[in-house]
Specification:
Layout: H1 11-15, E1 56-61, E2 64-70, H2 75-86, E3 93-94, E4 97-99, E5 105-108, E6 142-145, E7 157-160, E8 172-178, H3 180-189, E9 191-194, E10 200-203, E11 205-208, E12 213-219
Antiparallel strand pairs: 1-2, 1-12, 2-8, 3-12, 4-5, 4-11, 5-7, 6-7, 6-8, 9-10, 9-11
Length: 220
């Protein structure tokens, strides 16, 4: 789950989602969102792990609440993400990537929507709690860091909605305890991109057909 040079979906693509007939509705109601790509505010990078560590992150989205229990085996990651949350870095940002073929993840945490965004002035921090190199080493419900190589963690995270096999290169820092059904619903609506003629088409790796906005987040 690289965070750099993934893809770019224009504002036209986002605004054109309404013209696509999605699959049958599930029991999830997503509110409309007016969130757009933007430059996030600056947040000071922590220099050491918090003590005590927080236990839970809560993401309030336009499709409902996603709660994540935190894994103490990733203290630097948790501390860094907590600083971003408290600094409102994620507020009013759109999740920018959905994969539905081979990899089953929803990627968020880049308010610029370019797939290359990272907190201004931050140095990448170390990888923690890496899994074994084995099938389904990122099981459904896992929340992990996206990166562009060892020690390049920043703000981008991914939510796993079906068992996924990846290289053991992405810090696992939490588990979804509420809202996995939301991520699965978004995945069922599919991923979209623009073809060479500017037409919006479904793809296995693209922007979410159902826009997902992190309206706010909380540390507890």
């Amino acid at each position: 789950m690289k965070k750099l040079a993934i893809f770019f979906v224009s504002a036209l693509a986002i605004s054109s989602v309404a013209f696509i007939a999605p699959p049958a509705q599930a029991a999830i109601n997503c509110a409309k969102t007016t969130a757009k790509a933007h430059t996030p505010g600056k947040v000071t990078q922590p220099t050491k792990a918090a003590n005590p560590l927080p236990k839970k992150f809560t993401f309030n989205t336009n499709c409902g609440v996603i709660e994540v229990s935190l894994n103490a085996k990733a203290p630097i990651t948790i501390t860094s993400l907590a600083a971003l949350i408290k600094g409102k870095y994620y507020d009013n940002s759109l999740c920018h990537r959905l994969t539905t073929q081979g990899l089953f993840v929803l990627q968020c945490g880049d308010p610029t929507l370019t797939g290359a965004g990272s907190p201004t002035g931050w140095k990448g921090y170390k990888d923690e709690n890496l899994p074994k190199n084995a099938p389904n080493n990122y099981p459904a419900g896992t929340v992990a860091m996206a990166n562009s190589g060892p020690g390049t963690n920043g703000s981008q995270v991914f939510f796993v909605y079906e068992n996924t096999s990846l290289g053991p290169n992405y810090t696992i820092w939490g588990k979804i305890t509420k809202g996995l059904d939301i991520v699965k619903y978004v995945a069922k609506q599919g991923a979209i991109t623009q073809d060479a003629n500017g037409k919006i088409v479904y793809t296995g790796d693209g922007f979410t057909a159902q826009p997902v906005e992190i309206k706010s987040a909380k540390v507890s």
